[in-house]
Amino acid sequence: MTDKVIPDIVIGRLPLYLRALQRMIAEGRQVTSSQELGERLGISAAQIRKDLSQFGEFGKQGTGYNIEYLVEQLGKILKVDRDWDVAVVGAGDIGSAVARYRGFADRGYCVVTIYDNDPEKVGAQIGEFVVQDSADMVADIRKNGIKIAMITVPASHAQEVADQLIEAGVKAILNYAPVSLNVPAGVRLQHIDPAVHLQRMTYYL
Amino acid sequence: MTDKVIPDIVIGRLPLYLRALQRMIAEGRQVTSSQELGERLGISAAQIRKDLSQFGEFGKQGTGYNIEYLVEQLGKILKVDRDWDVAVVGAGDIGSAVARYRGFADRGYCVVTIYDNDPEKVGAQIGEFVVQDSADMVADIRKNGIKIAMITVPASHAQEVADQLIEAGVKAILNYAPVSLNVPAGVRLQHIDPAVHLQRMTYYL
Prior knowledge:
2 copies of one chain form a homodimer.
Chain A (H helix, E strand, L loop, with lengths): L7 H19 L4 E2 L1 H8 L3 H9 L5 E2 L3 E3 H11 L6 E6 L3 H8 L8 E8 L8 E2 L2 E2 L1 E2 L3 H8 L3 E4 L3 H13 L4 E4 L12 E4 L2 H9 L3
Helix pairs in contact in A: 1-4, 2-3
């Protein structure tokens, strides 16, 4: 791997490659090709080869990719060859579902805590977690060195929560609140808003 | 509006504009500018003006945009000036959270039914819904003319469910299962996978 700057759009596709490859492993597969991967993903084989070639040589002409090796390498590139602690802020329906979701464990993430500012929710049990008081959030997150958080509070509170998380040292935020957030340079931000995704399709109906 | 083909990436930004404008209305605002909208969204004012100009003239030089008028026009363009019935397939944590989510109502969507194939879940109450048997799904969806569905089943069943939905006449699928799906031309597909979103950020940490 070199120090050259890889376009965001290439980085954005790597998790899809990784997910498909991990699924192949679960199916008991050992070797694949850019063609097969492309068919599964709806991405051209040439695009996949070009993307991967940014990081080195992962396959041999004619013999394809060793799936386990490629998973290992993609894990290193994406830095998910370890477990990242994740804080969830907001213990409503979405926050509760995310905190209970079992799909993070083998993909590099471990939800370790969930916060809410509602006295009726603080202390409640959600899956294996006890909801913590948001008043302790900044100090806790700073003390534990948590770098990743998911915001699942109402839109009206999301920017305030984001500001607090950043103050506490969080560097990556996955925002479920239906509002765009402003974060300083050096903090990564991704959004999940199902209504936005639906509206991107309805246009074509 | 003309019949020219608008790039997908432009259509993809319109829901963000609409969301920000609806938020301004909630704040009691009446007029905005591409500058202000751009600052809220982290998108350049020039980009916003260019995107909107694809659909006509929405603002006057110097006086900005009338927010309500622009919301109305964007709603028409995105076809969310009506209520689309949405079926949810999978009554686990995510499906339950999505079915209970109150944020769809004023954005063009109305969840009308939730299915599961687990006899222990069928008949259970989730918010205002009684979980329906997946065995009835294809016939129900066809009869009711539902065109939009959300898949919240495990990855191993997602393609099979997608195939059934498409057979039933569904034209737009929002897939929460952590697997890429194949759909025929004419069917729109969007994915939400929080681990993929997290992995897109971890690279930069």
